Amino acid sequence: MNLTLYGYNDHWIAVDCGMMIRQDLPNSPLQVPNLETADALNITPQALFITHGHEDHIGAVAWLWPKWNCPIYATPLAAGLLRLKFAEHQLSSAAIKVIELGEARESAPFTVRYLPLTHSIPESCALMMLIGEYRVLHTGDWKLDPEPMIGAPINASHFQALAPVDLLVGDSTNAPMPGHSGSEGDVARALAKTLSQCEGRVVVSCFASNLARVLAIGQAAQQCGRRISLMGRSMERMVSIARGLGYLDDLPALVPPHDLGYLPPDEVVIIATGSQGEPRAALQRLAQGRHPFIELEPGDNVIFSAKVIPGNERPIEQLKKRLTQLGVSIFDEANHPELHATGHPAQEELNKFYQWVRPKHLIPVHGEARHQQAHQEIAQALNINAPLAPVNGDMLVLDGQGLTCEARYPQPPCIINQNNVVAHPGLDNTKATARRGSLYLALPVTASETGWWRIGRLMLDSSSASPLDEDSFSEWLDDQLEEIEAETLADLRFALQPRLIHWLTEHMQHMPEVHLQIMAAEAPTA
Fold first, then answer.
1. Could you confirm whether domain 4-180+342-423 is CATH 3.60.15.10?
2. Do 371 and 176 touch, CB atoms closer than 8 A?
3. Which of 210, 231, 353, 382 could pair with 282 in a Cys bridge, judged by C-beta atoms 3.0 to 4.6 Å apart?
4. Sign of CA dihedral 370, 371, 373, 378
5. In which region does residue 519 sit, left (phi positive, over 0), alpha (psi from -120 to 50) or beta (all else)?
6. In the β-sheet with 202-205, what is the strand arrangement from edge to edge?
7. Does the record carry Zinc as a key word (predicted)?
8. Which of 108, 134, 107, 137 is nearest to 125 (CA)?
9. At the fourth CATH level, which superfamily is domain 184-331?
10. Which long-range contacts (CB under 8 A, 24 or more apart) does 366-371 make?
């Protein structure tokens, strides 16, 4: 859920406005940023700048922008996606202003220039902001891809000309990863090789927004004498917008899904949504034999050309079990890592980029605490000042004294329920403290082959509640996670909540109001 606010002399702008899917809640609702803090501080952005078109950067715009009613600046692809969202919400798209790569816009005293970077979606841009005497570079999501398939590689001279910048707000997602992220060109060659060796029908599942991957699959299929078809609403929508912008002129002709049954299996490649095990996606329907136009058979192949997002391990494993029961061969990041490339920079790329722009200060964002800490270590080795690893709700100040955290505001999440932005159902939305206190527990977990286990420290806030032995409580929680058999985060929460209430009843003098949040966390690599 990316939403960053920048202010100078009481003038504010927003950068990105994204959403996420809460898999630990019933029906997997959308979660969006909470604007209560901004409202309380009288912060209303005068412009919204979008770095790229991924859902975690634009997914909440249609929900939250009506509170601001400000101009929205976005490159053509992101603008096209936003217009569709606005049409679904019956909002006028007049506020959406298309900005071309390299152009600048002003929301005085901010001057913001869009500088193209490579990422796993076309038109991803860093924002170079000139504000008073400060030069701030907000990188957004990026990598250094020498062969991005769609669009040009990064022009180093454009970024070297910016040096030195006063502050860089940068992507930490792959900061712990040594070396260099892979190239889309390498993935395209690996896909072509794999497809040439496959017999029977082939289904390739990837993120709909990764248009370079879609193009690579289409071209690889054509080389092997196969026809391609798209399955999934988001895939069809993304390809339609991209074609209108000229990004997929080299994509072979598409076969409508209802005509696939007329083609021999070894002449078919299906590009489908559902790489994360989503229950209503095309790949899930194929695995369950519920697709109206095609049935998978023994000898068919499914390629997962996408990384597993932390928290999705269980539904993906269940999906793969169903596919295996159908006699389908599976290619994924475990047995064929060459079939996917991350969209975020590893350590070599971070080092090279920072040598180009020479930031004086750095704020590590994106990822989790361990990613931010690894990012800080890289900055330290390059003599870049990076004293803070901020969390949601931190008010940071850059002035002549450097970077400081002025205040820390709690950010209880909001979800979309029946087309409305409402408080998370596990939180007490009233301002009054519960009569016997409140206990807020945030539990970061990850899935393993044998069950669930806790990642990192337990986040516990026992406001006005009777004392609690946190060490005993943590040990008990770890034991419960080992015992509970749950396929999803929602199942885990359902099983853990009553046990939690029982333990607290036995061990606390007064029973507080309990607010439990279970979060998917990424297991540290070896």
1. yes
2. yes
3. 231
4. positive
5. beta
6. 227-231, 268-272, 202-205, 301-304, 329-331
7. yes
8. 137
9. Metallo-hydrolase/oxidoreductase (3.40.50.10710)
10. 366/2, 366/141, 366/171, 366/172, 366/173, 367/171, 367/172, 367/173, 367/174, 367/175, 368/444, 368/456, 368/521, 368/522, 369/456, 370/176, 370/456, 370/524, 371/172, 371/173, 371/174, 371/175, 371/176
What is the rounded distance in angstroms from the CA atom of residue 502 to the CA atom of residue 99?
56
Give the span between the Cα atoms of 150 and 147, in whole angstroms. Answer: 8
Note down pLDDT in tens along the chain; length 526 residues. 899 999 999 999 999 999 987 766 667 788 899 999 999 999 999 999 999 999 999 999 999 999 999 999 999 999 999 999 999 999 999 999 999 999 999 999 999 999 999 999 999 999 999 999 999 999 999 999 999 999 999 999 999 999 999 999 999 999 999 999 999 999 999 999 999 999 999 999 999 999 999 999 999 999 999 999 999 999 999 999 999 999 999 999 999 999 998 999 999 999 999 998 888 899 999 999 999 999 999 999 999 999 887 767 888 999 999 999 999 999 998 899 999 999 999 999 999 999 999 999 999 999 888 899 999 999 999 999 999 999 889 999 999 999 999 998 888 878 888 778 888 765 544 443 445 677 778 888 887 767 788 876 666 666 665 677 777 788 888 888 888 888 788 788 878 887 887 787 777 766 777 878 887 766 555 4
Sole residue written with tokens 């607010």 = 515
This prediction's pTM: 0.82
Token digits of residue 21: 């899917």
State how beta strands 420-423 and 402-408 pair.
unpaired
Contact 203, 286 (CB under 8 A): yes
Beta bridge partners of 438: 463, 513
203 and 302 Cβ atoms separated by less than 8 Å: yes
Beta 227-231 vs 301-304: how paired, if at all?
Answer: unpaired
DSSP 133-150: TEEEEE--S-B--S--SS
| 100: Cα within 13 Å, side-chain hemisphere | 2
Q: Is the CB of residue 302 less than 8 Å from the CB of residue 336?
A: no
Tokens of 320: 């793969």
Name the CA radius of gyration of the chain, rounded. 24
Residue of 115, 119, 94 lying closest to 105 (CA atoms) = 115
Return the structure tokens found at 447. Answer: 């899935």
Whether the upstream peptide bond of residue 387 has omega within 30° of 0, thus cis, is no
DSSP 8-state assignment for residue 430: S
Using alpha carbons, list the distances in angstroms from residue 74 to 47, 101, 113: 11, 10, 11
> Rounded distance, CA 10 to CA 270, Å?
52
Token representation of residue 116: 């193209």
SS3 448: coil
Cα–Cα nearest to 154, from 162, 163, 164, 146? 146
